[in-house]
Structure formats: C-alpha cells, structure tokens
Amino acid sequence: MKDEVSLESIQEIFTDYLKKHKHRKTPERYAILEHIYSYEGHFNADILHRMMQKDYRVSLATIYNTLEVLLACKLIIKHQLGTQVAQYEKAFGNNTHNHLICTNCGKVKEFTDKQLKNSIQGRKFAHFYSSHYSLYMYGLCHKCKAILKNA
Amino acid sequence: MKDEVSLESIQEIFTDYLKKHKHRKTPERYAILEHIYSYEGHFNADILHRMMQKDYRVSLATIYNTLEVLLACKLIIKHQLGTQVAQYEKAFGNNTHNHLICTNCGKVKEFTDKQLKNSIQGRKFAHFYSSHYSLYMYGLCHKCKAILKNA
DNA sequence: TTTGTTGCAAAACGTTTGCAGCCTC
DNA sequence: GAGGCTGCAAACGTTTTGCAACAAA
C-alpha cells in the first residue's frame, strides 16, 4: 500500500510544486529526491551527503536547502528524536509514524498499529487541522532492560 | 492530580537517586531542581540559566550536567520540538505529552485526552518496556489555516 | 584525603549564511 | 540576460569537554 507510488509520480509532484512556487528545476534537487526515495528508513543530512557522494557530487548546503523544499511540499518528514541531529524520511503514502525509543541506548524502532492510528487520527480539534502525527514511546529495549537489571 | 506531589517528596526521590548512584548532593543540583519544579511549562537550558541568575549563580555547564542527572532519574522530560534547542519540563506525575504543532508558524500547544492516553499506554510490546510517550500532531492552527486559504 | 563536581573558556557539532560564479528560465 | 541556485568557507548557537580549583564524603 505504501510502495505503489512510482518515482515518476513523486517527481511529478515535486515538479508541480517547484513550478507553482517559481523555484528552479535543478539537477541537484532531482538527484537528492531520487536518492531519498531509493533509501529505506531514517537518515540525516550527513548520511545523505555521504550516500550521494558515491555517484553524485552535491554540497551539504544544497542538501539542507533541498530538504527544506521537500519538507515544504511534504515529500519528506522531519524528526528530532532526542538528539541534536535532525532525522528525515520519505513521506509519501507513509505520513504517520510510531516510534519506540530506548532511553538507554537510543535505538529507534518503528511499529504500525492500525487501531492506534485510527484512535489518533480520529481525534478532532476545535481550532486545529491536523495532517499527520508522530508518536514516540520511550522506554527500554529488551537488551538494555536485561543489562540494567543487573546494575 | 498533578500538583499533589510536594517539593519535599521530589527532593527525596532525587536524594535517593544520588545516593544510589554515588553522586554528590551539591547545593547547585538542589537549587536547579527547585527552580525547575517552581516553573510551569517548557524551558531550555538557557532560559533556566537566566531564570536562576536572579537568585542563584550556576554555570551553564552545571545546568547541562544536572539536566542529564534529572533526566536519568526521570524527574524531567526532554523534547526536541523541531528546533536545534532541546526543551525540558518537569515530569513528575505528568509524563505523557500530547502536542499540536503548527507546521506553518511553529506554535506548540498541549492537550490532554484520557481516552487517547489509555489507548496509547495500553499498547504492549513483545520486546519493549515503555515508560512514557509523546504524541506530536502536525497541522495548521486556526490563524495559519485562514492565512493560507487566501494564498 | 580522595575523588566527584564546579566554573570557565575553548572546542565541537549540526546547521545557516554570505558571496562569487554558474545555470535555469 | 536576469536572478535563483550552487559550492565553498566562514559564522552561528547550542551543547560538550578539558582542566584547575573546590568541596562533599
């Protein structure tokens, strides 16, 4: 259900957005979009930069710039998972996020739960129009639980 | 229900934690704890530092150090609400958090919902032991919704 | 007396910015 | 050709670190 969307249609959304906002269609921007959409899971600016260096040279500044644009047209989502470093992930067809975060080792795991999703998305607000959500559950992963028991 | 807990009992929890972990009971640590618990809402290290300077001199480094300790004994909670700056708040008796975040103006509002809380806290995991959660709902606040309609 | 903690200043880190040259439009 | 975009390097603001002096145990 998530991966039915082709890269072409994603690019089209991007093109439309750029046109509409009078931004230029540069090769760098499309290269960045492609790399993001061929990658599974969370990444940060630096990881993306290193990942791209293998086959396409872009500066970190351009990556940050493009991430802003992609954020604005909702093709990616930004997380701040308790660290200084912003995490991103592709967003199309996948804009609700449940995370388990270990408060000891920092490991992040995603999970899905349709029922929970319905409860959360079903919540309506008087003066707020919600588009998506992120849920962060903090606790201990199996490993850390075991380690800390012996401390 | 939140404010029944006295400062004394909070201090006791802190003392027990320090003792157990062989950390020293310094006046700076208790002064920081007190200031945090006499403050309502989110704060960051710098705000806390400025707030304290009026009646107690502590270095920023010590504040960061103490925030780590308070985090470890779960007397405060840390948020990264989309910015570079970590936000904190006192946690006792109040360790689940629902936020509405406007993706246009960045304003953050909290809300409570017992039913939602139950659904989320009721969720059990095979290999994860959750202690608390934060829910972030992204969308448009009333004002921004109105502004963007005319764009 | 020992050793963890403090304050200070410097360093580190991710991110942003200024600017000259380049490339879409 | 005009002006947005890029890459580079320098700047920024928050957080961390190294170290000497201090104080809790």
Task: Please characterize this protein's 3D structure.
The structure is a homodimer of 151-residue chains. Chain A is α+β, with helices and mostly antiparallel strands and 151 residues long. The first copy, chain A, has 2 domains: 7-89, Orthogonal Bundle (Arc Repressor Mutant, subunit A), CATH 1.10.10.10; 95-150, Dna Ligase, domain 1 (2-Layer Sandwich). In chain A, 42% of the residues lie in helices and 22% in strands. In chain A, the strands form 2 sheets. Chain A has a 3-stranded mixed β-sheet with strand order 4-3-5. A two-stranded antiparallel ribbon of chain A has the order 1-2. The A-B interface holds A 78, 80-84, 100, 102-103, 109, 111, 113, 115-116, 119-120, 123, 125, 127-142, 145 and B 78, 80-84, 86, 100, 102-103, 109, 111, 113, 115-116, 119-120, 123, 125, 127-142, 145. Strand 5 (128-141) of chain A pairs antiparallel with strand 5 of chain B. The first copy, chain A, binds a DNA duplex (25 and 25 nucleotides) through residues 22-26, 28-29, 44-46, 57-62, 64-65, 84-86.
